What we know:
By secondary structure, the chain is mostly helical. It has helices at about 5-15, 20-35, 40-65, 85-95, 95-100.
Amino acid sequence: xxxxxxxxxxxxxxxxxxxxxxxxxxxxxxxxxxxxxxxxxxxxxxxxxxxxxxxxxxxxxxxxxxxxxxxxxxxxxxxxxxxxxxxxxxxxxxxxxxxxxxxxxxxxxxxxxxx
Length: 115
């Protein structure tokens, strides 16, 4: 590939907003050539990376637009409060299977006391 071909490809990828592909195609092309991987596998890896990056940015944008006052993750869930909690049942709820079954989940209890 000539430098002018690379410059044209970079410009096209920039115009199409394919930022992941633009930043990774050279390194992945070298890796694919060294490992003698098929062109389709190389292309699939590039597209998969682009899709993953777009999905991550979409989630980040939605969280930012929601303007949550505090961000909490399930990793921060405090199992010590309330004292009586069915941990296995709660962890099963984290899998979100109830959504596929079109059922609701209602959690009732007191607000955690301030520390």
